[in-house]
Amino acid sequence: MGRSGSVSREGSLPSIPSRAVGSGDPFTGLVTSVSRTLRRRGMLAGGERILVAVSGGADSVGLLHVLFRLTDQLGLSIAVAHVDHGLRPESAGEGRL
Does the pTM exceed 0.70? Predict the structure, then answer.
C-alpha cells in the first residue's frame, strides 16, 4: 500500500474537469443517486468514519469525489488510502495524485 491521508470537510479534492455542455454541475445527479442508494440500502446511517481505497483511476477518484460531496449531508469523516492493484501498467504512477 502507498500513502494515506484524510480529507476533512473543509478540505478540497483535486478539480475534476467537466465534460458536460452548459453551466450545470455534472455530478449533481450522481451524488443524488448515490445518496438515495446509501439510504435505501442502509449502507451509511450518518456520522461514520469511512476509509476509501483509491487506485488513482477514474472510477475510484470519482467515488471519492462523490463521497466527499456527501460529507456534510451525511456527517461523514473520510480517510483515503492509496491501493496499487497492479492491474494496469500505469497503476503504480496513479498514486501520486
Answer: no
In tens digits, what is the pLDDT along the chain, a chain of 97 residues?
344 444 444 444 444 444 444 457 788 899 999 999 998 999 998 899 999 999 888 888 899 999 999 999 999 999 999 888 888 777 777 666 5
| Residue 77: all three cell numbers together | 469523516
